[in-house]
Amino acid sequence: MVQADSVPSAALLNRYGSSCPRYTSYPTADRFGALGGAEPWAALKDIRALSLYVHIPFCRSLCYFCACNKVVTQQYGLASSYLEQLLAEARSYRDRVADVPVVQLHLGGGTPTFLNDGDLHRLVEGLGETFNLGGEGREYGIEADPRTLELESLATLRELGFNRLSLGIQDFDLTVQRAINRICTAEQVRELTDEARRQGFESISYDLIYGLPHQNLDTLRGTIDQVMELAPDRIALYHYAHLPERFKAQRLIDTDAVPGAAEKVEMQLAAVQALEEAGYDYLGMDHFARRDDSMARAARDGELQRNFQGYTLMPADALVGLGASAISYSADGYWQNHHRLKDYNAAIAERRSAVFRGWQLSADDRLRQYVIMELMCRLSLDKSEVARRAGAAFDDYFAAERARLEPLKADGLIEEDADRLWITPLGRWFVRHVAAAFDAYLARRQETPRYSKVI
């Protein structure tokens, strides 16, 4: 449970509430550049299991808070033609990937359920022509907008093998919903949740956001109470990052209505406490799971992972991302597709690949990747294991980082002994800053950072 001594003071908020990467990868995607002759996808030939991510960028209406790569349209033909290009990209991996089971498939967006049932069949069946979708114990997840998802489509999704459903709720308060242009009732969500359970979905997740315009402690508590009545298996509680200078849609939000840092801390604290009291484990920065859920068990067993969708079980050696802006990962590095739909479509039509940037991992990158992911997922480091991987003593290899960690140690965010370094309950609020101490590229960055604020 949240203890009084684990709540950050105003001084700590001022000191550490600044912008910082979320570390869904290391190096972070903003570091990616031209690959030159590097081919990080070559490592796909030597894997045992694969994850697939498919980006469907289309939405029927604009949510003002959203910072995702999306195309708002009522023209369904755009999605149908995009699907042609996406499947062509999938076929380009036929000779690149070992014949291994796909243990995870995730459809994100945008709004993946923008696709009608026929095109959902077309997509999954098309992916099955290239990838081995028949693995045991597979996890197939899809993000859905409860305002537009038809109850009948849940049967189609189950038929196609989807067993995890994520519903984007954000907030149930009508004033907040109007301010972000996303009106959705609790009854809509209840009907979908009940039907998904009847259809046999193994896990249902809700996305919530705190720090939205006109949101306050009381309205958030009201939303949490309604969510608890619906009892989803997992909850993602994200911090709203108000960056109107970067995201045009956010300019439609009244900046004066966005809660301040102190209010956001109160909201997060209240939400964490309410969810823990209701039987959810707090897994990390923004994820919660019921204590009997597989993700909660993975966290307890030290098997939680992190990728571009946040915390995950990720039991695969590599991730192939398909679609506009999608990022792929192998043991050798990362590669990312064009963001803009026009550029993506043109690249696929011309050369069957939309890759335009990436990163080839060095030995130092792999070591720091391990360190940062251990901190983000397990909140601790085994110094002897880091030393084994580094081929040098922990304190010697990370001498510069030791200096950056001292202020965090003095502020009670981390503790250590001869064998281990760990993040304290207070430090969990600022885990991104602890991880950032080991980011070699952030340490020497000169330009103004473009990351979201921690609080």
UniProtKB/TrEMBL annotation:
Metabolic or biological pathway: Porphyrin-containing compound metabolism; protoporphyrin-IX biosynthesis; protoporphyrinogen-IX from coproporphyrinogen-III (AdoMet route): step 1/1
EC number: 1.3.98.3
Enzyme class: oxidoreductase
Single GO MF descriptor: 4 iron, 4 sulfur cluster binding
InterPro entries: Coprogen_oxidase_HemN (IPR004558), Coproporphyrinogen-III_oxidase (IPR034505), Elp3/MiaA/NifB-like_rSAM (IPR006638), HemN_C (IPR010723), rSAM (IPR007197), rSAM_horseshoe (IPR023404), rSAM_sf (IPR058240)
SMART domains: Elp3 (SM00729)
GO CC, one annotated term: cytoplasm
Cofactor binding remark: Binds 1 [4Fe-4S] cluster. The cluster is coordinated with 3 cysteines and an exchangeable S-adenosyl-L-methionine.
Single biological process term from Gene Ontology: protoporphyrinogen IX biosynthetic process
Location, primary (coarse class): cytoplasm
Protein name per the record: Coproporphyrinogen-III oxidase
UniProt binding sites for S-adenosyl-L-methionine 1: Y53, G109, E143, I327
Family matches, as SUPFAM superfamilies: Radical SAM enzymes (SSF102114)
Needed co-factor(s): [4Fe-4S] cluster
Known partners and oligomeric status: Monomer.
Reactions the enzyme catalyzes: coproporphyrinogen III + 2 S-adenosyl-L-methionine = protoporphyrinogen IX + 2 5'-deoxyadenosine + 2 L-methionine + 2 CO2
Family label: Belongs to the anaerobic coproporphyrinogen-III oxidase family.
Keywords: 4Fe-4S, Cytoplasm, Iron, Iron-sulfur, Metal-binding, Oxidoreductase, Porphyrin biosynthesis, S-adenosyl-L-methionine
Keyword Nucleotide-binding assigned: no
UniProt entry tagged with the keyword Cytoplasm: yes
Residue ranges occupied by any Radical SAM core domain in the UniProt entry: 44-281
Residues that, per the record, bind S-adenosyl-L-methionine 2: F65, C66, A67, G110, T111, Q170, R182, D207, A241
Function: Involved in the heme biosynthesis. Catalyzes the anaerobic oxidative decarboxylation of propionate groups of rings A and B of coproporphyrinogen III to yield the vinyl groups in protoporphyrinogen IX.
CDD domains to which the protein is assigned, alphabetical: Radical_SAM (cd01335)
Pfam family of the protein (one): HemN_C
